[in-house]
Amino acid sequence: MCGIVALIGSREAAPQLLEGLRQLEYRGYDSAGIATIERTATGSGQLHCLRAEGKLINLTNRHAAQGAPGQCGIGHTRWATHGKPEERNAHPHLDGSGLLAVVQNGIIENHRSLREELQAVGVDFRSDTDTEVIPHLVSRRLAELRAGGALASGTLLLQAVQDVLPLLQGAYALAVVWAQVPGALVVARRAAPLLIGLGEGEFLCASDTPALAGFTRTILPMEDGEVALLTPLGIELYDAAGTRVQRTPTLLSGTEHVADKRSFRHFMLKEIHEQPETAALWVARHLPVGGATGPLVALPLDDALLDGLERVQLLACGTSRHAAQVGAYLLEQLAGMPTDVFFASEFRYGPPPLSPHTLTVGVTQSGETADTLAALAMEQERRRAMADPAYAPRLLGITNRPESSLGRLVDAVLDIGAGIEVGVAATKTFLGQLLAFYGLALALAERRGGSINGRSPEALRQLVDQLRLLPEQLRALVADHDRRCEGLAHRFVDTRDVIFLGRGINYPIALEGALKLKEISYIHAEGYPAGEMKHGPIALLDAQVPVVSIAMPGSVFEKVLSNAQEAKARDAQLIGVGPEGPDTEVFDVLLPVPAVDELLSPLLTVIPMQLLSYHIAAHRGLDVDQPRNLAKSVTVE
Hints:
An eight-stranded antiparallel beta sheet has the order 3-2-4-1-10-9-11-15, with helices on one face. About 35% of the residues lie in helices and about 20% in strands. The chain has three domains: about 5-245, Aminohydrolase, N-terminal nucleophile (Ntn) domain (Glutamine Phosphoribosylpyrophosphate, subunit 1, domain 1, 4-Layer Sandwich); about 260-470, Glucose-6-phosphate isomerase like protein, domain 1 (Rossmann fold), CATH 3.40.50; about 490-630, Rossmann fold (3-Layer(aba) Sandwich), CATH 3.40.50. By secondary structure, the protein is α/β, with parallel strands linked by helices.
């Protein structure tokens, strides 16, 4: 969940490292550091290490005051796992001599036993992190190799890292520099993302694509278990067995890889306002105008992936799981396809019995969510082990980063195409995930002949026609609710608990509304199916606990209004999300959305949820884009 940048070339490394870290600050921001190697007159080097607690600006100021010369270096923004967010726990971590530095993303699960082994032979640890075992292990191996007569070189550093990696259990992406060899950089990955960007006479490694912005669009994504030696002359890439690998670089897909807040106060607000554009791009790409005879939806999926399907299972975490819950509802109601949604973090430890002809969908905005990738990989392996074509793995990914680890694992990808999202709390990527599920459900419904659950082919086409209106509806909603929610935010100054209610397809939107409020305002919030409130949560209600209720016309409209009345009878302040009219006068405050087909309503009801959470957090003066304890890409289990 941290950000890694490493550079080797012919120009000063520190400015590029700091700029790369600025682009990755959303991945980890409780401390940061860089280490550079300055070549000396003797041909060896001097290691300069700068670290700072807190935001990246603290490190930038330290660099401005102290400098860090050298044309080879590594950098890191940290999201704390082992050890508090203090300067001594910030990366890079050094060996005892201060000549070797390491940055790492991931978790070394056996760090405690390795630390005890090293301490037993006199190694002094300066941090509480799991990472610090790595520089000490590499340094020890280098000493052993040099005692055997080996000379200091990039190849020697490579060998030492290769020898140490089998000792490490867990997930890692790491970069290593050694002052004895100022012209060499070694990087490695296992179950954590790492990309190599190819420039002109220089190479930039990073844990995510934004760090490569302005540097290159030519990339070499590292595969699991690979290790690379980088020098200004080129790349030597090796697999886990130590065999040299030759692979052709690829071009970075997409066009938007530079974060620009424009005139907005926060990235999150900008990204909420970009959702009409996200919807417009999706409509243009996937809803062909074919009259009454053309296909309903155009998706880049092979027939083999969808033919003969009997079941779908969705694996996701957090916000992505809420999108998957909406997706499951759509797949069952539109396509008649039995669908299960699983917490990816739990799937590996209690997977369901294998069923034949099953499509497994991994949903992750970053394409790097460790729990989701691990669950997909496990499902792939256990299906391959069946040696039965009916149980063959069919893997689909829904992501905003098709060039990610997810894209290299699954058979096909639905790229939500939302552009870079910097705010940790997902907004436009959530909308993009929802739209991907609408496309998938419509494609399956059309393949199965329509007339599923009362939806004739004509009714499906009418639904598509309504989807084409979505971008304009979203533009009006975002503008309207930005003003309404800003005016409402002051009511939540002293609020400590909020209940969100929804039913049917809008129950996941209630969950998402509660999650957004928790993530950025630190107010305790819970989402419930509205009918479940009377089965326990109603005990929490009083005049100090607002209730946000989603009430959209459809099969559960009257039921939701009745549940709202139950809350009002307990003096709760009622905030409604629904169309204006006599039925919604029960609410103390109404956040109005137009009446649409119930199946399309989540695309609209999510807007006031996002803006209400944003303005409450902004009114409290909180760091909306980088809320405490959270990171954008959750690359640890």
